Amino acid sequence: MAPTTTNYLDDDRFDGLYLNVANQTQGIEPLLDTVFSFLRRKSDFFAGPPGSSNAQDDAGTEAAIAKVNEVLKKHADIYLRDKRRKDEIELEKKKKKEKETQQRRNEEEASKKKKAGQEEDVIELGEDGGFDISNDRSTTENDKDPKPSDVTEAARQSMDESSSVKATADEAGGEKGNDEGEDDSPPPLGNGGTVPGKYTWTQTLAELTVTIPLPPNTRAKDLNVVMSKKHLKVSLKNNNNHENAPQINAPLTKPIILDDSFWTIEDSNRLVLTLQKSNQMEWWDAVCQGDPTINLQKIVPENSNLSDLDGETRQTVEKMMYDQRQKALGLPTAEEQKKLDILEKFKAAHPEMDFSNAKIS
After folding, report:
1. pLDDT tens, 176-189?
2. Any idea what DSSP says for residue 266?
3. Is 207 within 8 Å of 275 (Cβ atoms)?
4. Cβ(319)–Cβ(144) under 8 Å?
5. Burial of 253 (0-12, 13-18, 19+ CB in 10 A)
6. Which conformational region is residue 191 in: left (phi greater than 0), alpha (psi within -120 to 50 degrees), or beta?
7. Are 151 and 334 in contact (CB under 8 A)?
8. Which DSSP helix (H) or strand (E) runs through 74?
9. Cα–Cα distance for residue pair 79/94, rounded to 1 Å
10. pTM exceeds 0.85
11. Cα separations in angstroms, 20 against 17, 189, 233, 286
């Protein structure tokens, strides 16, 4: 029976070993130095294949360099192939999403035109004898997809497209907060917090940064840092190379991407851990389970531009910005203005009727 040949191109059995070496060497060149140092000191790699050094003194070394270049090019080709494949998949997804969005818009536009031709605006008489248009069907249908022309123009006058949409998110968060009770505390610094006596932390939607104070002149070999998908342990070693009580040893609040998470020592007096979130569309209220939590309603969203949003989301945000500006000026919002326009249209069509008690609710 022929022996089984192992494919080392995608073999992940040694990832833990190399991650440990990478954490210790703190750089690509030192990491590669350890590999070639091992080959130089513990093997005849640089001597080349048997017999190659007899013809010329440096022939073996040239053969070793050629082999390194051959293996390096092989992995570079694999990387470029995978990258092209990934880019093609992403491009195909983007085209498909744009096509579906455009198709949905076309269907909505066709539906609106059809309904506009079939239905007449109706204003019902309220219980008090006044005209109440709060339940008008046309208004309800229009509210689902507000006409972007007036809203967009007013929004652009009040705020440039490159400005942050953070205020809109704050307003939405504030409204929710009012339902659950007033909270006058300031937003958490860096959208994170402090665990007294242990560490401070900040976060973005994509990652967390945990900073742990260390004694002066601490080196990497003085630490024991163990990161897993759902657990974190950090401890210092004493003079006998034994671990002290861990500064952190607890399950993480949510899972992380281990391959993209790492740690470094800065200024020889603090440990900085960068933890990549598995779900990069949610905020954490704490790093580890059991630690003090922050109020997620006080999170300050990351800045984004209107130009970065897809058409439907951008239209919604522009409407919210327009309504916010109108309220600040004491003017009707987009929804209120539509109701007023319907009332004026009805009044013009029925001049014989008395609208002195008409109201908009």
Report:
1. 444 444 566 777 88
2. E
3. yes
4. no
5. middle
6. left
7. yes
8. helix 59-118
9. 22
10. no
11. 5, 32, 15, 27
